[in-house]
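Input.
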Amino acid sequence: MDRPPTGTSRWGRRGLVTGVLAAAGLAVAACSKDDEPTKKVSGDKVDAAPAGNSDAPVDGADPSQTAGGSQTAGTSPTGGDSTTKSLDRSTGAGSRRPSGRQARTVRTYSERDESYMGAKAGRQLRSRPSVPAKLYSGPAAAATGTKVTSPLVFTADPVLHLVRRTTFGASPELVAEVRKTGIDAWLSQQLQPESVTESGDVAKAESVFSTHGKSIKQLRADKERLGDQRPYADQENVRLTIARQIWSQRQLFEVMVDFWNDLFHVANPFDGSEMVRASFDADVIRKHALGSYKDMFLAGNRHPALLRYLNQDQSRKDRVNENLGRENMELYSVGVDGGYTEVDVRQAALLQTGRLIKDDEFFYDPNAHHVGAIKVMGFSHPNSSADGGLDAGDEYLSYLALHPSTAERIARQLCLHFVSDTPPATLVARLKKSYLDNRSSIVPVLLTLFSSSEFWGSVGLKVRRPMEYVVATHRALGVRPGAELADGLSAVHNRMRELGQYPMGQPSPNGYPRVFTAWASAGTMIEEWNEARSLVAGGRKGFTFVKPEELVEDPPATAGEFVDALSVRLVGQKLPAKDRAAVLSVSGLTADATVDATFNGAVTAVARTILASPYHSFK
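Output.
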């Protein structure tokens, strides 16, 4: 493990951990044994690791809980017949999930993010004063009209706040673009990504991955032709996603792709994902990321990736698997407290029989479809014909997508992602109404969010997750594609895996946690800082780097002014006097000391220290 730069006594490991946690309104105790899970899931294996992400239960929940955090009952390990009466959801004794896991016997929280916020650190976050609630005529009006009262030392500059929240990280060029274009015009462009010219860096990344843009049929042909020498489309899809996060000009679109990949989640990789997962990304998530959730939800339920991931391809009318029927409600729509019962799960599973896979592609087999009247929550259908079973299922899925509980759940997730780990009830209600009024179209919902005072008043209330930190660091340092780019992106993918988060990487169907308390650990922060040091020094092949001494054009001659200029370059603002002095202490120089472009040899350490500060960890 790398060590902090020499001279970090006043700005060292514990100092920065304390600084980040204190700025979040937390305490170092947030990382205590009692309040934080100690395992994380990384890729296709489970390791002890510094990252805080975990599906471990909180407050006494049974470790065999369902992936989504709900209590379940009444299904057999093989997906066979289940009990047909509503069971007591407080116990579920003796029942099993289709996956073979025992249902948890205690459900303290309905959502995993909520369970993390039930820890001590989360309770401290909940004590923050609320932001005044108001809807303005547009984003720029809301930015101007909202008074920022955050106790943090971040600048209240609305452009910096907008860029931090709606992109994977600010760069001087991007900030200048938003200032020139204006908040309303820039957001309008971002919400129409096809109108934004994509960067050549993304095109270069696309060119190095031979599976990019190929259909499932083409991938199958490559497998037959190349055998073990073939590239794997699912893995290339992850690495291309990383490239897009770093270099895309369509940043809000990429943020929304990541948002949906956590909400309508299909792991990448999973057993059987090779031929189908990249297509799910292109044809379900990306195609509908700024469209309507109803269309995304319907498309996903006709896609082989989702069907295979949740064992729907094994479900027949005489051998029903309930995984997809359950997760469609529990995780992908109304949520565990959305009003469904175990009987509803069974009925939904029966209605979706016949949705199968052949040659890695979706097909509907009427001979496998259950016929008979169906009632799920408030939805009913005669389902009297096997030939009409696919359409009947789509009617049900449309009902779920437009259900008020789905609207509220997606509204809350958007608030968690863009605003605060303690979503304002006023904003959740406002977004829910917009979602229902616009029949799940996402752009109007986002415009409502960005036109709300709760968004603009939330400066400093979100912390970057590990993947977001890594991408933001690449962007802040101006890292560009170089030779051997595919190997370089593979190395970034592996580094993110070590940190516990990479695009689409959560193995279970609930996606990654969105709240800071799920990731809060000193080990994770130290590894992020080591990553920043490596990138400042240009220590990864496959990329081109700005030399540390060239990060600031025409660097000032005194150390204090140099730190000011470098802080603006990397985090968009000058640091307050106390933190500026802490950064200076890394070099052992006083503010009025004369320095050259290398900061007298300390520029790498100084830059890395700024990137290890809360000003870069927060967004």
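The first strand starts at residue 39 and ends at 42.
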